[in-house]
Specification:
The protein is mainly α. Helix content is 85%, strand content 0%. It has 18 helices and no strands. This is Tetratricopeptide repeat protein.
Amino acid sequence: MVAASDEVEGLRSELEQLAEERRWVEIKDRVEALDDTALMSDPKVAYLAAEGLLHLGRAERALNLALAAEAEFRSRQDHLNLLPALNLAGAVQFELGDLAAAEERFSDLLELARERGDDGMVGRATNNLGAIASLRGEHERALSLFRLSIPAYQKVGFMAGLAQADHNLGIVHRDLGYWREAERHFRSAQRRARQLGDERLAAMGRVGLAEISQLRGDHVYAEVEARLALEAYDEIGDELGRADALKLLGSVARAAARPDDALASFDRALKIARQQVNPLLEAEILEERGRLHRESGQTALALADLQAAAGTYRRLGAVERQAAVEEELERIS
């Protein structure tokens, strides 16, 4: 009979290999039938399971595993593993909308990474702090943090980090209305992702480019790209990616005066965002659906969606987005 410790060691070795090859679906499939107690018996197993689950949008389950791994590495004073565990726990908290907790972890990570001279983790910490600043509408701070992450990633040759930084720079430039610059960053992110063979990052880049096309009024191209992104997310099993692509398809259909198609896409996206417990994405979908209801003359439904979106933005500290929705509510009222 195989000893329990041997079983755990075998599972850890298997998950490490899958994570190194970025085979997140296989990690999810491997740990799905195991309960959290079994996974938490080894902090490295808990970490790897949480990492795979987060990549596929399973943030709620990933949280307990990530926090357990972080706590155990901290108690062992295992700084080599504590730094990535801090980053992962913060990333999960960000996805779940707990920005204060995420910011605290990323700030701790930045301090520890600088003390230890870990450029890769300095890059991750600054990139993730930039994502929080971007959500809060602190665009200049976000740009500075994203740009700080790039030389740190370059020092260690972390291509996935460079792709993520490019994607995040694209988002900020899009929000500032600099569409050409945003497009340049999204294309760079997509190119790096393809070099890595990371289908999730490549699909994110495709969605970013489709959003720019929609803003320019090219709804046909935007819809084609959004559907291709949806197919990619379906293939890799990324539920939150699916919701994001469906949200974009809804926005394109709304702009193309196809309200029934738009509503169907928004409803599908909203169901997934709620199932996966992602408050930011849920608020974005509600905001878009609220505008669709307003344009369709369904004032009560529009008010309900927009008020819910504004409330979530307020809770997340997304001040600019909250203000934009509240202005729209005033016009309706």
